[in-house]
Amino acid sequence: MSGVGFVSSYLIGILVACHKMLKGSGSELHLAGLDSRLRTVLDVAGLTEVFPQHETRQAGVAYFNRNQVPV
Q: What is the domain partition of the chain in residue ranges?
């Protein structure tokens, strides 16, 4: 998300739709690289608790690598 310069209600809708689709398949959508403005938008939209957040993409990848569940 570090390259996102503008957040519209359309983008929020896309994120929510992706979240629902992934959750339905047993996965989840994580967001990385949010600046304070984007965090505020998610907070105002009531989505701060819906999307796990990571400071950087690398931190997000490290999270998934640490938390892999054997199949």
A: 9-66
